[in-house]
Input
Amino acid sequence: MQEIIRPIEQEFEVFKELFDASLQSTNPLLKEVITYIKQRRGKLMRPILVLLTARAFGEIGTSTYHAASSLELLHTASLVHDDVVDESDKRRGQKSVNAVYDNKVSVLVGDYLLSTSLKEASLTGNIKIVNAISKLGQDLSEGEIVQLSTISDSVFSEEIYFEVIRKKTAALFATSAELGACSVDSTDEMVKIACLLGELIGIAFQIKDDIFDYYTSDTLGKPTGNDMREGKLTLPALYVLNAFEDDEMKKVALRIRSLEAAPTEIDGFIQYVKEKGGIDYAHKVMMDYRNKALALLPSTVPSEIKDSLTAYIDYVINREK
Output
């Protein structure tokens, strides 16, 4: 992380101060929940991408800080709402907001964060940034709905899988890079390149998360096969189900989707996917996206920023949580 943020270290500190300042309330309960959320925040990978992309195409300014803050607020709101939808009691290895408080409080706090996100976007005075944040909110919601509407499908489609992760995960990274470029008044062509760069990084990020699900990790705050316990089949499983004709395993996969699979069935299915090369396949696809992302970096990007973006992409695929 130090290598990633080295050329934007001061700007990153400015961002964190502005982000914290945007989350202030005199209401005791709201203040308490916000404080809890702040204590649980991650490495702020997406705002870092906003800052790095802005530096890649220009100089970071006030608009960049507000754009990064808006992005992170919207992301945080989506996580709070997702935990309610998924009935999750943990987030990043700690109790989720809905586990500590309740669903009503979580939904309302999520709405508050969303509204604050839009306020931050408006402070940029840049309609392109406001439009990008609004579009991101739509994509995140649509991704969840697509996933819910296809969870009982009998078809094991990689195409639908990629549609979902483009909306749910890759859209966050794509918009991060887009906001960075827009905040320094980049050309439309450069904004498109930044957006695609972010999308490729985001897809690689999600595939790495999918691989995590096949291994036990206390640091992730979830057991092996957690996605499958929620009825989700990701890239390693989809590849194996399509590459091999195994009617029994397809029946197990359908039971997983319908939330009817026993824990022993899920454990057996995980082992089957590993043995049939599902993890190796997913890793190869992830590396392909990593290489495509690196190839997109324009030659005009300052060398220190290019080094940081390269370290950023490699961190995404090599992280352990």
